[in-house]
Amino acid sequence: MLYIVWDDLGYGACDVYGGLIETPTMRRIADMGLRYTQFHTTALCSPTRSCLLTGRNATSNGMACVEEATTGFPGSNGRIPFENGLISEVLVERGWNTYALGKWHLTPEEESNLASSKRQWPLGRGFERFYGFLGGETDQWHPDLVYDNHPMEPPYSPGQGYHLSKDLADRAIQFIRDAKVIAPDKPWLMYLCPGCAHAPHQVWKEWADRYKGRFDMGYERYRELVLANQKRMGLIPETVELPPINPYIEARSAEGKPWPEGDTVRPWDSLSPDEKRLFSRMAEVYAGFVSYTDAQIGRLLDYLEESGQLDNTIIVAVSDNGASAEGGPDGLVNENKFFNGVPASLEENLEHLDDLGSEYTYNHYPTGWAAAFNTPFKLFKRYSGHEGGTADLCIVAWPKGIRKRGELRHQYIHAIDVVPTIYDCLGIEPPAQVKGYAQSPLEGRSFRATFDDPAAPAPRESQFYSMLGTRGVWYKGWHASTVHPATPSDWGHFNEDRWELFHLDEDRSQLHDLARQHPDKLEELKAVWFALAGRYFGVPLHDRSAVELLGSPPPQLARPRDRYVYYPDTSEVPLAVAVDIRGRTYAIAVDVTIETPEAEGVLFSEGSRFGGHSLYVKDRRLHYVYNWLGEIEQKVISRTDVPLGRSVLGVRFQVEGKEGVSPVGTAVLYINREQVGEARIRTQPGRFGVSGGGVRVGRSGPVPVTGDYEAPFAFTGGRIKEAVVDVSGAPERELRMELAAMFARE
Is pLDDT at 556 greater than 80 in this prediction? Predict the structure, then answer.
């Protein structure tokens, strides 16, 4: 059983669904099986993935939102109940080998570290082997790798040919071979989740260059071409029309509630030549990323065919939600700006035009391409009431078990229906207990009947949706949804939301609102939504922004404290559980013994070139750099040399105010009791990033904070005892006092 889960891949992106991005491996799978034209997800990654593995609704799984936004409520606590067993837990008890590779994103941030319980890690949920990353995204050149239950560095560098998609394919083949040489007939489940096509969109230049000029027509024209392809291929009815590219701007303005600027599309004809060139290149990089990853999956299929396993392998390939609008109207070269609530500038983006896709950018295309890659639907990822967020590709192949080849199926199905279908194919009755836990009923239904009968009824007659304040419900061919941005623009005003009504069987693009013509039908569907939301823990609702989602204090393994101590011989401390210096006065003091005048290297590092700070010794001087969102490297260099022998080297930042959303103040360098340098700096309002860049002592992360050195710039020529970060803000805890405290502990 091969379960492939793409990330942020819109319905109209790939050629197998009428798009213009070449995916020969997905076409190969479709030619062996069936494409489903009305497959639906939750509109966001963690929630969908929980559905895909359990057969229960996201809110029943505690996954009302992503793992970075957990709350204390049952529907959004971020922990899949053990009563909702994963398919891996069911199959491993029946003698299957079970493998998970790539993106996981089903463990709360506060439990994604070496001090936490591993109950919600892949190996705690029925997978025997895991190789991938725990969070929602990662750098494709320098990923946050976890192997089974421990972090590890990538096995080789981009200069040696490393890319995460390639690495995952290599490991997938290895995992299967490792078992097959011992037990050739033992069945296996592989849950393969590449980071593609989630940001950062990173790929080899030659793969992006394959699409040179192919998106120069712009995203409006792209939609027209893809719509024609989809109709010709029979994916959508001939009557489907394209909705406006900004469907709610005028209507919302009339209501006195403007649509959020970050989710709007700038018309292609309004762009300058430079903007068109930039936006086209962003699409080329995305397309190359998708095609490259498709080719790596193809290598796995080649292995299965060569080893005689392909014919009896059930393959399910899906995407977890629609294309993403997180790049904003202008796109991003550093997605961390989105998570800090800082808009990108065109000038900065243009400066990095030739770097797009490389390890020097963390890029994301603009909202216009999100709308285009979701053709023919409205809106995009995060919007659970609209097909642009929830309608996704779904391909099912099983050469020995499905007689039909290359056909379409038009039944309405949902992510919760996949696990029941697999159980049906395997002849497995859902168990009453898994690992001693009494199991809840499956909430999905098998659609196996559709394999051989294109006229088989849909497995369900209703499905509810809820995400970031947006809501929707499908019931017997009709769909009702709220007009509510997936942002905090209407914080808490859920009762004021206007509901729309669409006859989805006849209006796939949700263009014709029938709420006024059929008020009774609308009330019926609203009642269905409330009934299902009540049954499946779909309330309370929330619609926090990205900054608020990532900035709210999560549960912690230990109480917040004024003083954090880190050591050089430990693994990276993830950002989610590291000291929080955002908007605060802080001091960093490193107890170090300098043994030679040539001593150099990183003393303390947090973040990366896309945002972070680092304290290091170079050319006998103490350096501190604060990299503000990859845009400004603010440096302080000591006026005197670092002395031989034991010293406390450090920096203290004092908050003095704000510039816009960013705290500003003075950073002062210290060598023992002496102030040796100072500068006014601006700090980030939010996190240093969502990929990598945790706290390290004695070395940098794989992506350095500054261009002053190459990673890992490990400290040599001396010994580091410990690094202390003080966030008390109290004058008596300044670095001058830390020196005495350190020596007193001897």
Answer: no
